[in-house]
From TrEMBL:
One of its GO terms (biological process) is carbohydrate catabolic process. Gene3D superfamilies: Enolase-like C-terminal domain (3.20.20.120), Enolase-like, N-terminal domain (3.30.390.10). Residues 127-230 form the Mandelate racemase/muconate lactonizing enzyme C-terminal domain. This is Mandelate racemase/muconate lactonizing enzyme C-terminal domain-containing protein.
């Protein structure tokens, strides 16, 4: 919204870049959020003339170029290229991309995800505010609810006891059967993360995501060994499927998480799905 927060606000217009990949046969593919300068100078010369259906080859080539160009070819820079190529394939075949991926279902359950706690009017200033928001989300038909709790510069944040108070209010509001999740934004140490996990066990929460900084995989291995609560991650670690394979192998998470833009597109995301 206009205050820089992610809570519901009035509808407004927004401007965003749109990447278009055009073939010599006239088929086009699109995606949002492309970096114009990097695409024109680095990516366009590398992919012009290639077969757009050779997505794996193009992705492997761009991934190799990342090694000496990480400052300009981050995963979130490459993601629009890969996603536009998938979009192009769907348009060329007149099929939705989920079917090209080997579709299993045509709909998926959705959970509501909150903004971070704040002190704005109609925001999430108290644990009770989270409960009210959760009730609103349930009336909208959502089948789960995830909290993002207070973080700096909010006064007194982070505070694990206040986070749990919000989680408890939400559980009371939605009842015992709705999956609930907590993402406390990586601010805690081992002691606080374990406190959160044990409290969420009692509240029958579905998972906890990124309670600690993810640079320390050993801290997550330790946490998973101490709690029966599923731990979801990593979210922000660089390294695509390679890092997530290590987390799975060493028991640093119970649920592997990967954002399509964070890992560089659908092509690497599907590699993570198949780990």
């Amino acid at each position: 919204d206009s205050d820089g927060y992610g809570h519901p606000g009035p509808t407004h217009e927004a401007i965003q870049t749109l990447l278009k990949i055009l073939t010599d046969e006239g088929v086009e593919g699109y995606w949002f959020g492309a970096n114009t300068s990097v695409i024109e100078k680095t990516i366009k010369p590398a992919i012009v003339g290639q077969d757009p259906f050779m997505r794996e080859k193009i992705w492997q080539d761009l991934m190799e170029r990342q090694r000496l160009n990480l400052s300009t070819l981050a995963d979130n820079i490459l993601a629009p290229i890969d996603l536009a190529l998938w979009d192009l394939a769907g348009r060329a075949l007149n099929q939705p991309v989920y079917k090209i991926l080997g579709g299993y279902r045509s709909i998926v359950p959705a959970y509501a995800s909150t903004m971070c706690g704040d002190d704005l009017q109609n925001g999430l200033a108290t644990p009770q505010d989270y409960a009210v928001f959760a009730e609103w989300a349930m009336r909208r038909g959502y089948q789960g609810f995830k909290l993002h709790t207070w973080q700096p510069p909010y006064a007194g944040a982070p505070n694990p006891k206040r986070d749990i108070e919000a989680c408890a209010f939400v559980r009371d509001a939605v009842g015992p059967d709705i999956p609930c999740m907590l993402d406390p934004y990586h601010y805690y140490d081992r002691e606080a993360a374990l406190y959160l996990a044990k409290q969420l066990e009692d509240l029958n929460y579905y998972w906890m995501e990124e309670p600690m900084d993810e640079h320390s995989m050993s801290s997550y291995i330790w946490l998973c060994q101490q709690t029966s609560l599923p731990i979801c991650g990593p979210e922000t670690c660089e390294g695509k499927m390679h890092v997530r394979a290590e987390w799975i192998k060493h028991g640093a998470c119970d649920i592997s998480r990967a954002g399509v833009s964070d890992v560089g597109g659908l092509t690497p995301l599907m590699k993570i799905v198949h780990l």
